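Design job #97: recover the sequence.
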């Protein structure tokens, strides 16, 4: 790693932003959403679109049965056409069923439609109504718990999953989701137990395998983690999270090239942000600025409001000979951070000082950094030293300018004196004429004897 004065300030900024990268990667990996399926006979599976409920258990009127089957067929038709599901159309279909007669399964499927339209409050209400009408509708209980988790109510979701585990001993999804919550809270033993129980009930539960792999990683059992990932990838070779987990294991085992290959595999079929963050962090540590720019731009297409990534993009642009673009990225980072990312000022100051050779705006940036970071945060920063260097440069420039001005004044004075002397010699007076009126002798004449 280079330690020249030009790169050290940039690395200080980079280290500050790297913490944000790690945090983002961790949170993204641990909170992957679980899509809901709407079949009361089977729990929701990861990365599957919701499906309509099977036919109701009760014997509703013939009209209700007909409308229910029409709603089911409408969703199946959309699925066969391989087009995006028109959830508002399906919502109207389920409303039509409920207008004809109350039915728990129709309530549940209406909730699925509302949830996919973004109406989480409405979806929650429909799931609750479905459970009131039919407490044995397990899928409604599962979807309600997943919805609570999606809304950020981890405590409520855990309680709901716990009830499902007690009331539906055969359920796998509640166990795998509860295992994930335990994992997020650091309760590795409970997470491992529940994931194993989920796999005993559903051997194809990739989510349970992922929990086991993460627990094994947290315990430092890397060979076990790799084995778990290998088994899960046999179920779905294209799952990006599994490739990411494999990359994490390889990275911890010292196989950086293998880890990079798995991270790239994870983003090959789509934008999987944890893998992209891992690639960005690795590139930044190696100061591979072209790759840093590539990964930062990819992340910003998904997270345009990420101030730390705008900062890293600016660093990459500065190091790849694009100072004006770097300044624009710094300005965007500063705007988005709202004063919470003082390293922007330090990066801007370094650019002005080292690239543009403009010390006055550099000093202003260093002072802004010191004010924003505070005395404790900026104690080990190079900003004071760089500010002194800039101040010294400005003072030297001032003295040089004064010396040049004095030299010019002295040169002008001497030139004026020389010009005056020359003019004085050119204006020397002629000899006076003799008193008798005769002409004055010239140098070519001699006076008579």
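Job complete. Output follows.
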């Amino acid at each position: 790693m280079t330690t020249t004065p030009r790169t050290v300030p940039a690395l200080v900024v980079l280290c500050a932003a790297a913490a944000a990268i790690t945090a983002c990667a961790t949170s993204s990996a641990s909170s992957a959403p679980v899509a809901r399926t709407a079949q009361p006979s089977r729990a929701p599976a990861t990365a599957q679109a919701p499906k309509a409920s099977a036919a109701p258990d009760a014997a509703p009127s013939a009209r209700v049965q007909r409308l229910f089957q029409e709603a089911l067929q409408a969703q199946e038709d959309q699925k066969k056409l391989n087009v995006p599901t028109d959830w508002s159309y399906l919502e109207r279909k389920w409303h039509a069923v409920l207008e004809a007669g109350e039915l728990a399964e129709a309530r549940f499927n209406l909730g699925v439609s509302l949830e996919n339209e973004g109406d989480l409050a409405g979806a929650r209400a429909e799931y609750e109504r479905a459970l009131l009408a039919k407490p044995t509708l397990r899928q409604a209980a599962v979807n309600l718990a997943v919805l609570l988790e999606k809304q950020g109510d981890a405590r409520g979701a855990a309680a709901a999953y716990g009830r499902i585990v007690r009331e539906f001993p055969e359920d796998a999804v509640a166990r795998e989701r509860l295992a994930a919550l335990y994992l997020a809270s650091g309760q590795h033993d409970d997470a491992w137990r529940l994931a194993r129980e989920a796999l005993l009930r559903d051997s194809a539960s990739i989510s349970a395998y992922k929990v086991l792999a993460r627990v094994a990683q947290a315990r430092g059992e890397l060979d076990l983690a790799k084995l778990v990932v290998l088994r899960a990838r046999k179920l779905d070779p294209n799952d990006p999270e599994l490739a990411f987990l494999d990359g994490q294991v390889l990275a911890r085992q010292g196989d950086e090239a293998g880890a990079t290959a798995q991270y790239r595999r994870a983003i090959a079929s789509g934008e999987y942000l944890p893998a992209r963050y891992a690639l960005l962090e690795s590139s930044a540590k190696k100061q591979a600025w072209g790759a840093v720019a590539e990964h930062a731009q990819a992340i910003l297409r998904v997270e345009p409001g990420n101030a730390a990534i705008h900062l890293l993009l600016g660093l990459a642009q500065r190091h790849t000979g694009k100072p004006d673009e770097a300044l624009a990225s710094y300005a965007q980072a500063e705007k988005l951070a709202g004063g919470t990312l003082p390293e922007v000022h330090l990066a801007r100051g370094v650019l002005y000082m080292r690239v543009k050779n403009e010390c006055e705006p550099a000093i202003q940036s260093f002072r802004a950094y010191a004010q924003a970071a505070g005395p404790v945060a900026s104690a080990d920063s190079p900003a004071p030293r760089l500010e002194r260097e800039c101040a010294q440069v400005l003072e030297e420039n001032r003295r040089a300018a004064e010396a040049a001005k004095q030299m010019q004044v002295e040169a002008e004075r001497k030139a004026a004196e020389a010009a005056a002397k020359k003019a004085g010699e050119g204006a020397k007076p002629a000899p006076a004429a003799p008193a008798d009126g005769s002409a004055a002798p010239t140098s070519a004449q001699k006076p008579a004897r």
